[in-house]
Design goal:
- By secondary structure, the chain is an alpha/beta fold.
- About 50% of the residues lie in helices and about 15% in strands.
- It contains 11 helices and 9 strands.
- A 6-stranded mixed β-sheet has the order 1-2-3-4-6-9, with helices on both faces. Strands 5-7-8 form a 3-stranded mixed β-sheet.
- Helix 1 links the parallel strand 2 and strand 3.
- Helix 1 packs parallel to helix 3, helix 4 packs parallel to helix 5 and helix 9 runs antiparallel to helix 10.
C-alpha cells in the first residue's frame, strides 16, 4: 500500500512501553518529510502520557532506517524545502532528547546517515549483531553535518570524523565499542534483551527518571561548575519527592518500594 494510505509510524503500547515502528519498509524506512512529522506528532502525544514509562523506536522490514529520502529531496530541489526539512529533522532529534521518558533505539538492520543520527540521539540503543552503521552522505557528495552532531556526542572525535569523511560501515560490535549502542545480541534475542532493559527502567520511580534525564543532558552542555550546581539542585528536589522518601523507607525496612509517581 502507498505511504498516503499506510501509516508511516505505527504505535503499540504494552506494559508501560510505547513501541514506535518506522513503517516504510519498501523505502528502508527513509525519513521523508511526512515521516518526520508523524514521529514528532507521536512523541508529543507520548510525552504528555504519564502511563508511558519508556519509548522504543524500531523499523519495519529489513532496515532500521536508511536516512533521509533522497528521491524526495531531489524532487523538491529548492533551498526553502531543504532548510525546512533539516529544521524538522533537528526538531525531531531534540524532541527525543527533551522527552520525559527514556527513548531506546531497537536496531535490527542497517542504520545509515540520518538513521545513524537517530540511533545516536536516542538515550539508549540495543542492537542485533547483524546491524551495521554508516554516515554515507559523503558518498553522494553530502557531508552528513546533522548526523555529526549526534555522533560527536556519542563517540571519540576522531572516530566520528572518520565515519563522516569515509562513509564506511562499521558493524554492531564496533558500534558498541565506540559508544554508539549499549548492548549487542543475536537477532533472535533482540526483543528479549529489550524487554530486560525496559523492565529495569519501568521498575524505577518515573519521577527520578524524568528528573535525571533532564539533568543528564543539561549538565553535558555546560561547564563543570554550573553542572555541579544543576546536579545539586536536582538531587535536592528529587530528595523532597514522595517516591524518594518511600524508596529510602523501603530500603531501610528491607521491603519493595511502592511508587506513587510523585
Amino acid at each position: 500500500m502507498s505511504d498516503s494510505i499506510e501509516p508511516m509510524v505505527l504505535r503499540n503500547d504494552r506494559d508501560g512501553v510505547a513501541h514506535l515502528t518506522l513503517n516504510r519498509p519498501a523505502q528502508f524506512n527513509a525519513l521523508s518529510d511526512a515521516m518526520l512529522g508523524a514521529l514528532i506528532e507521536q512523541l508529543e502525544v507520548i510525552g504528555a502520557d504519564e502511563s508511558v514509562r519508556v519509548v522504543v523506536i524500531g523499523g519495519a522490514g529489513k532496515a532500521f532506517c536508511a536516512g533521509h529520502d533522497l528521491k524526495e529531496m531531489r524532487g523538491n530541489h529548492t533551498l526553502d524545502f531543504q532548510q525546512a526539512l533539516f529544521r524538522k529533522c533537528g526538531k525531531l532529534m531534540m524532541k527525543i532528547q527533551k522527552l520525559p521518558q527514556p527513548v531506546i533505539a531497537r536496531i535490527h538492520g542497517i542504520a545509515t546517515a540520518a538513521g545513524c543520527q537517530l540511533v545516536s540521539m536516542c538515550d539508549l540503543a540495543v542492537a542485533a549483531d547483524v546491524s551495521r552503521y554508516a554516515v554515507s552522505g559523503i558518498n553522494v557528495g553530502l557531508f552528513c553535518a546533522t548526523p555529526a552532531v549526534g555522533l560527536s556526542r556519542n563517540m571519540g572525535r576522531k572516530e566520528a570524523f572518520e565515519m563522516l569523511v569515509t562513509g564506511d560501515f562499521i558493524d554492531a560490535a564496533e558500534a558498541q565499542r565506540r559508544g554508539l549502542v549499549n548492548r549487542v545480541v543475536p537477532l533472535d534475542q533482540l526483543d528479549d534483551e529489550l524487554g530486560k532493559l525496559t523492565a529495569s527502567i519501568c521498575a524505577k520511580t518515573p519521577v527520578a527518571v524524568r528528573m535525571g534525564k533532564q539533568l543528564f543532558y543539561q549538565q553535558l552542555e555546560t561547564g563543570i561548575e554550573a553542572a555541579y550546581q544543576m546536579a545539586s539542585e536536582t538531587m535536592a528536589c528529587n530528595m523532597m519527592t514522595e517516591d524518594a522518601a518511600e524508596g529510602i523507607d523501603a530500603f531501610i525496612a528491607k521491603r519493595p518500594p511502592q511508587w506513587k509517581g510523585r
